[in-house]
Amino acid sequence: MKRVWVTGGAGFIGNHLVRYLLHTKEAWEIHTIDALTYAGNLENLADVLPHPRHKFHKVDVADREAIQNLWEKAPPDAILHLAAESHVDRSILSPLDFVHTNVLGTVTLLEMARIHWKGRSDVLFYQVSTDEVYGSLAEGEFFTEGSPYDPRSPYSASKAAADHFVRAYGHTYGIPFLISNCGNNYGPYQFPEKLIPLTITHLIERKPIPVYGKGENVRDWIHVEDHVRAIALLLEKGKVGHTYLIGAESPRRNIEIVQLLCDLYDEITGETCSRSLITFVKDRPGHDLRYAIKPSPHLKALGWRPQIPLEEGLRQTIHWYLSHKEWLDSVRSGEYQRYYELQYRERLGS
Ligand code: NAD
Ligand code: DAU
């Protein structure tokens, strides 16, 4: 049996990945390793917690002793490393949290791999990364695997540093690794601090929808299940030491996404004039203007294609949030209220 660690498995992308691996890889044992920060939620994994091939461990990836203990009990054959502080706005408010988890956490795992995987070529450290490491694009340009790193927020700098450490450990110590960089994910279970779930929750509650600046910034959107399918494929068939760009070729201006969500929401619920909730607010400092991805040709050659068109995925996502109001209430209780106040009180005057 192959034992796979999924770090950050109680978060947004992680829970979809854990579920997908349990359902598709019948010989594998999946270990979720997650510190359960504000973004990690055991309810996200409720249906797979009792699964006989799934084990959950509440551990901080930067805690060397705890990771060492876990390694002795359940040594992995592959690490799918997703655990991270993932929100750009929070990285602007408190960058050190991002250094702790994204940099120190990654290097802690790499250190364990260096010690325990010595000489093994049948193992893999898979780093799940972001297109934000490449910086901002001008109109008509695209990120490719060869794009130079140019991170410009504390979040993207911490992810870029982690990617560099992964490559450095591969080069210096021979640890088999693979990195994939993906664009903006959306779908069920995304924490409501991010643009799409924030917009949907404000639509449900008829609150002003904050759009930074003029809403001209472009992000390249992909449904989380399409991302997860790509990761699972690359885990088995990707070339060791390579970098893959994952994207669904759906770049949109933020204002277009928010308007589309308003229109879909009205169509689904019979509500009217949701667009009137859109409120342009003070911009994010250092806000990257444009991201757009050319997915790796090798990923396409392996047969991967995004299967969920943007509008269909957004419609499904609205339905999911409408039918998971208890989940929303539970993840927004406590710490989120403090963050929301800090981030939006001045912007929205509420
Ligand atoms: P998320 O914030 O929803 O989840 C992160 C998870 O990591 C949470 O469960 C949290 O509890 C856990 N975690 C945080 N600090 C930890 C620590 N010190 N030790 C152990 N666990 C810890 O994030 P997400 O959106 O699911 O992103 C997952 C990964 O994918 C991240 O590495 C992110 O950089 C990357 N990524 C995300 C996107 C996106 O659009 N969401 C796009 C590309 C890449
Ligand atoms: O590109 C991949 C990245 O996408 C991931 O690596 C990150 O983990 C993920 O958080 C996401 O980063 P973004 O900053 O692009 O996501 P966010 O949803 O925060 O913002 C999307 C766009 O919407 C961005 O241009 C900022 C804007 N925005 C965001 C919020 C929260 C608003 O206009 N208003 C808002 O209230």
Protein model, in words:
- With 350 residues, this protein is an alpha/beta fold.
- It has 2 domains: 2-186 and 221-246, NAD(P)-binding Rossmann-like Domain (Rossmann fold, 3-Layer(aba) Sandwich); 195-218 and 251-289 and 309-338, UDP-galactose 4-epimerase, domain 1 (Alpha-Beta Complex), CATH 3.90.25.10.
- 43% of the residues lie in helices and 17% in strands.
- The protein has 12 helices and 12 strands.
- It has helices spanning 12-24, 64-73, 88-93, 95-116, 154-173, 195-205, 224-237, 254-269, 297-301, 310-322, 325-332, 335-348, and strands at residues 2-7, 28-34, 54-58, 78-81, 124-130, 177-182, 184-186, 209-212, 218-223, 243-246, 251-253, 278-281.
- Helix 4 (95-116) packs parallel to helix 5 (154-173).
- It is globular.
- 45% of the residues are buried.
- 2'deoxy-thymidine-5'-diphospho-alpha-D-glucose binds next to helix 3, helix 6 and strand 8.
